[in-house]
Design goal:
The complex is a heterotrimer of chains A (about 450), B (about 130) and C (about 500). Chain A is α/β, with parallel strands linked by helices. Chain A has helices at about 10-20, 50-60, 85-90, 90-95, 105-125, 135-150, 165-175, 220-230, 315, 330-365, 390-400, 410, 435-445, and strands at about 130, 155-160, 180-185, 200-210, 230-235, 255-260, 275-280, 295, 305, 375, 380-385, 405-410, 420-425. Chain A has 2 domains: about 65-80 and about 345-445, Aspartate Aminotransferase, domain 1 (Alpha-Beta Complex), CATH 3.90.1150; about 85-340, Type I PLP-dependent aspartate aminotransferase-like (Major domain) (Aspartate Aminotransferase, domain 2), CATH 3.40.640.10. In chain A, the strands form 3 sheets. Chain A has a 7-stranded mixed β-sheet with strand order 1-7-6-5-4-2-3, with helices on both faces. A 4-stranded antiparallel β-sheet of chain A has the order 10-11-13-12. In chain A, helix 6 (about 135-150) packs across helix 7 (about 165-175). The longest helix of chain A is centred in the C-terminal third of the chain and has 38 residues, at about 330-365. Chain A starts with 7 loop residues before the first helix and ends with a helix. Chain C has about 500 residues and is an alpha/beta fold. Chain C has 2 domains: about 95-350, Aspartate Aminotransferase, domain 2 (3-Layer(aba) Sandwich); about 360-490, Aspartate Aminotransferase, domain 1. In chain C, strands 1-7-6-5-4-2-3 form a 7-stranded mixed β-sheet, sandwiched between helices. A 4-stranded antiparallel β-sheet of chain C has the order 10-11-13-12, covered by helices on one side. Chain C has a two-stranded antiparallel ribbon with strand order 8-9. Classes of the chains: A alpha/beta (about 450), B alpha+beta (about 130), C alpha/beta (about 500). At the A-C interface, helix 1, helix 2, helix 3, helix 4 and helix 5 of A face helix 1, helix 2, helix 3, helix 4 and helix 5 of C.
Chain lengths: ~450, ~130, ~500
């Protein structure tokens, strides 16, 4: 057994040192009735070759997104991750290190998390960011909980443009916490009057930008209305690359930003592990969930970093903690940090413009197809089109042809007949002109 | 009669007319270590004897400060927010936390006096 | 003490500033084409100014992060004796397989017919975990242990409310990990502590006295955080069920039981596992984790979505809380779960098999008891008798030396070891909780033992005047940084880099 260093001779010697006859003696506290005799009903140990063969066979049953023109978005985006990222995160000192509770042995982790926190704050235009949460959807739920703590109010308004899975997670988290969620109906094309729903009991209003349909808005006026009523504005971002080009939430008056960081450094991975980002105004920092890295000096006056403001967290505050969260998304945050470092200011702007240009080209091609209508006024790298018939069967037909045409809205809003004709289409820098041609031609064919 | 009384949770309270000044004892600050942050109640809040009135934090611990007596908060030591180290430097004086309008003077008199508190700490250390 | 160097570097320990302090404006480590001119569709909502991100070339960035990595300790470097963290070897096969394009390059919202292999992965990982736990159902989506606790406690609350039973309290041992009471509070429960007996286990009589119709569940860790198996667990389960409550188990310490004891046989109703502990997925400097929750039949209907089900066309995904998941507590995170961690965990489980997994538990328990046997004459063993996969000492042996548990642990750093878990569990004074895992060779353990014995001896020599506490208090002195001022970091938090006024001017 290649992962177990003890030999039978070692085991005998150690049992002798302990003073017991067999290993069974060390399991004596387990009630007889609960000791499972023999082996469980699972395959025996397999060599590396065998494991590889089996899992590769399983992987081969999937159509990987690189093998097809891919226009899928809906909260996860296919981007190019530079080769250096994956090499660096696999360095053993990053991959196999623990949470940096002993800062003298973890300055590497602490420094990159400090850089990560800075990058997230800069991108979102906010004052302070934490060292990551599980994903965008749980970040959103934590943002709602934080707004309730800060304002000591119980009511939250959720925009209809919020990703339906984020809304669902807020509902799950809130169901036993005495939280009142006013979730607005989803409808592309806007038209919701969120300001009208704010009252003296509102803790926060949650919007998404670009929203689930890809639409971009300026929420500055809404921020003012929130603040006038003593409420907070929470802005969700599911495609962080958009902040390379569009006005960030911090410049619109957002109080908390909850976002998904997968777009930088992290593969699609069929949905996980992803990367929750969380940023807020500095004055609320003691109500923030998650780990925070702070700068300090050591006994010789040298600059260094430590986990700080730990009294917010579960291991100290227990039932009074700001969240029960312990593990973050460390390695995913490192990948994000490295990718953004490689892009830099210039590269990020260029990548964002490339995405937008690709999406504009795709939107124009698709809108030119008879029966297909573009819903958005504005968009970044994802938009919504209305088809002349339900989108789901069309997407399946195209998948059978080896084209991943986009996300039928009915996948996320089943049972909403009036939304069934809608298709979310994302076009990142990974989409080539011939992919757009291919999609347009195939879609036109299927619609005939 | 001593004007300062003590609780078993290491809070002190000093009477000034019908105003009670409250803080944590020097022994408490020593046990806690360097104070990094203090959470104080809002003015006007009613606090009940034995219930949480404030929180005092070190880098590695957070402790509740319980109200030694019941009353209404009339003042809080805002200076502690910018300079939490005052609690360590002068726990019995400039490191005060809260001033209450005392509801029931009998509660004050029932608390330990200086001698009794010193004996209590001596016991605890064994 | 060697003389200061000109660069400030010390041999292989190289100082490295922040990315933001190395900005070459306009530089980029990725060459990208500028798009052809096009009619933009941003509606005037472009950014108004620069973001402030630094520009560097690829060589600078590779060097930056390489130097950072060299300041970290890791499992790959040496023993991490952290109790309840299970810092075992992270096999590289797992990393290779997780990166197969057929797993890594799958979008979560692809048509289900195009991802049957991915659904099979989730289903098979779930199957292995169900067999190992002896429990009939499993929720795969929670992202980490604490998330799994949330899942389990919510399922319990949903089950109780479904039967019209309103109970408002959770019982949690004093020795519990902080996530347990934090989770309870998130689910709207009041937390009541149950005491331990003199043997370090749950006081059964006290538990029975506290169990009534207002208790929703008991949250227990087994083996507990003192490294001891709760030997009265069957009686505990019976008492909990007798009171109409549920039995939640924190599976952080499953490494002591895997392949030998099934939580389902202990009467447990819900158990989260930490794939990043027992099942070797890498800790990655703090995450990501994965926390699947095994559920008894009574709780299965409340499992969070998505569910993987077998349909006529193969695997199907139930993504919404409607039939067959009509009673589900709902969705706990985006998409389907920590798929990348499932590949790693499944590869690990397959590599060991039923025989290897059982051996893991045996070697883990053997290693911990070996440390116990070889150290309990110089360190203070908190509870007599055999331990399971971790052994608990406290600071009794440091009495009158002027050395604290913290000082002792920092001295260990200079010896090339990451300290053990300190000051947890709270039930003993100055706790030192050591978990070697099965990944340590006997030679590695012998070296660790020698160092701990030496340090303990050095501490004892202070009492006779031969030694000096200052040595301990100054530790560590051989790491890239000495002890860091955590008080200052908490009093005046600096949580991000900011440009100096001069730098800001230059940028404008």
């Amino acid at each position: 057994m290649r992962y177990l260093p003890l030999t039978d001779a070692d085991r005998r010697d150690m049992l002798a040192s302990i003073g017991v006859a067999s290993i069974e003696a060390l399991f004596a506290d387990v009630p007889e009735a609960a000791r499972h005799p023999g082996l469980l009903d699972l395959p025996r140990a397999m060599g590396e070759l065998e494991v590889e063969r089996r899992l590769a066979a399983m992987a081969a049953k999937n159509l990987n997104a690189g093998a097809a023109p891919c226009f899928l978005g809906g909260g996860a985006y296919r981007h190019h991750v530079p080769a250096a990222v994956d090499h660096l995160i696999q360095r053993g000192e990053f991959l196999t290190s623990y949470t940096p509770y002993q800062p003298e042995l973890a300055q590497g982790t602490l420094q990159y998390l400090f850089e990560f926190q800075t990058q997230v704050a800069l991108l979102t235009g906010m004052e302070v960011a934490n060292a990551s949460l599980y994903d965008g959807a749980t970040s959103c739920a934590e943002a709602v909980a934080m707004a309730h703590r800060v304002t000591r109010r119980n009511r939250t308004v959720l925009s209809g443009g919020l990703h339906p899975q984020y809304r669902a997670v807020c509902e799950t988290y809130g169901q036993f916490a005495g939280v009142e969620l006013l979730a607005q109906d989803a409808a592309p094309g806007g038209g919701e009057d969120l300001a009208a729903l704010i009252d003296g009991e509102t803790a926060c209003v949650v919007v998404q930008n670009p929203d689930f349909w890809g639409e971009i808005r300026d929420y500055s006026a809404l921020a003012e209305r929130c603040h006038a009523a003593g409420a907070l504005l929470v802005v969700v971002v599911t495609e962080m690359l958009s902040l390379g080009l569009i006005l960030p939430p911090g410049e619109m008056g957002a109080d908390i930003v909850a976002a998904e960081g997968q777009s930088f450094g992290n593969a699609l991975n069929f949905g996980g592990p992803y990367l929750g980002l969380f940023a807020s105004r500095e004055k609320f920092v003691r109500q923030m969930p998650g780990r925070l890295v702070g700068q300090t000096i050591d006994a010789e006056g040298a600059r260094g970093w430590v986990l700080t403001l730990a009294t917010r967290e579960q291991h100290i505050r227990r039932e009074k903690a700001t969240s029960n969260i312990c593990t973050n998304s460390g390695l995913c945050a490192l990948a994000f940090t490295i990718h953004l470092a490689l892009l830099g200011e210039a590269g990020l702007g260029r990548l964002a413009r490339l995405n937008h240009a690709t999406a504009v080209a795709a939107a124009e091609r698709l809108a030119a197809i008879p029966g297909v209508a573009l819903v958005n006024e504005r968009f970044f790298n994802e938009f919504t089109v209305r088809l002349p018939s339900p989108a789901a069967p069309i997407v399946e037909a195209l998948a059978a042809q080896g084209i991943l045409a986009g996300v039928p809205v009915s996948r996320l809003y089943p049972g909403r007949v009036e939304l069934a004709d809608l298709l979310l289409v994302a076009a990142t820098e990974m989409v080539m002109p011939q992919d757009i041609d291919c999609l347009a031609a195939a879609l036109q064919e299927v619609l005939r | 009669m001593s004007l300062t009384r003590y609780t078993k949770d290491h809070e002190w309270v000093r009477l000034d007319g019908d105003t009670a000044v409250i803080g944590i004892t020097d022994y408490a600050q020593e046990q806690l270590g360097d104070v990094v942050y203090v959470e104080l109640p809002e003015i006007g809040r009613a606090v009940e004897q034995g219930k949480e009135a404030a929180v005092v934090e070190s880098a590695k611990a957070a402790s509740e400060v319980y109200a030694p007596v019941s009353g209404e908060v009339v003042a809080v030591n805002d200076a502690l927010l910018g300079e939490p180290a005052k609690v360590n430097a002068d726990a019995m004086g400039e490191g005060w936390f809260i001033k209450l309008r005392l509801a029931d003077p009998k509660q004050f008199e029932a608390l330990m006096d200086e001698a009794a508190y010193q004996a209590f700490i001596a016991e605890e250390q064994h | 003490m060697s003389p200061p160097t000109i660069s400030g570097n010390r041999g292989l320990q190289i100082e490295e500033p922040l990315l933001f302090e190395q900005d070459s404006p306009g530089h980029c480590g990725v060459d990208l084409p500028e798009p052809e001119p096009f009619r933009e569709r941003l509606g005037g909502l472009e950014r108004r100014g620069p973001i402030g991100l630094p520009g560097l070339s690829e060589p600078q960035i590779v060097r930056h992060f390489t130097r950072l990595s060299q300041k970290n300790y890791a499992i790959d470097s040496g023993l991490y004796p952290l109790g309840s963290c299970t810092m075992k070897h992270n096999p590289r096969l797992n990393e290779k397989l997780a990166r197969l394009p057929g797993f890594a390059d799958l979008h979560p919202l692809q048509p289900v017919a195009s991802v049957q292999g991915a659904l099979e992965l989730i289903d098979m990982t779930a199957h292995w975990l169900k067999v190992l736990t002896g429990m009939p159902a499993i929720a795969m989506s929670p992202a980490a242990g604490a998330h799994g606790e949330l899942c389990g406690i919510m399922a319990i609350r949903a089950a109780l409310e479904a039967r019209g039973d309103r109970r408002l309290r959770l019982l949690v041992p004093e020795s519990a990990h902080g996530t347990n009471p934090a989770t309870a509070a998130t689910c709207g429960y009041a937390v009541e502590a149950i005491p331990a007996n003199s043997r370090g286990r749950v006081d059964l009589a006290a538990l029975k006295a506290q169990l009534d119709g207002g208790v929703a569940a008991l949250m227990l860790t087994n083996p507990n955080t003192c490294g001891l198996f709760e030997d009265e667990i069957l009686e505990i389960a019976a008492a909990v069920h007798g009171a109409g409550a549920f039995f939640y188990c924190d599976g952080a310490n499953f490494n002591a039981l895997v392949g030998r004891v099934r939580p389902g046989d202990l009467g447990i109703d819900a158990l989260h596992m930490n794939l990043h502990k027992t099942f070797s997925t890498p800790h990655g400097g703090g995450g990501p984790g994965s926390g699947p929750v095994a559920l008894a039949a009574e709780l299965a209907p409340y499992a969070p979505v998505p569910w993987i089900v077998h349909g006529k066309d193969g695997f199907a995904l139930v993504e919404h809380a409607e039939a067959p998941a009509a009673h589900s507590i709902g969705r706990l995170k985006g998409f389907h779960g920590q798929i990348g961690m499932f590949v790693r965990a499944l590869a690990y489980m397959m590599s060991h098999g039923s025989d290897g997994l059982r051996q893991i538990a045996e070697d883990a328990v053997l290693n911990a008891n070996y440390l116990r046997a070889r150290l309990s004459d110089v360190l203070t063993l908190s509870f007599p008798g055999a331990c399971m996969h971790e052994v608990l000492f406290d600071d009794g042996f440091l009495k009158d030396t002027g050395v604290t548990t913290l000082d002792f642990a920092k001295a260990l750093i200079d010896e090339g070891f990451h300290p053990m878990t300190m000051y947890f569990p709270l039930v003993v004074h100055g706790a030192l909780l050591i978990e070697p895992t099965e990944s340590e060779s006997k030679a590695s353990l012998d070296q660790f033992i020698a160092v701990l014995r030496g340090l303990a001896e050095r501490a004892q020599s202070i009492k006779t005047g031969a030694g000096d506490a200052a040595h301990f208090r100054a530790a560590p002195s051989l790491t890239p940084r000495r002890r860091l001022d955590e008080t200052e970091a908490a009093r005046h938090p600096v949580l991000r880099w900011r440009p100096t006024p001069l730098q800001q001017q230059a940028a404008e």
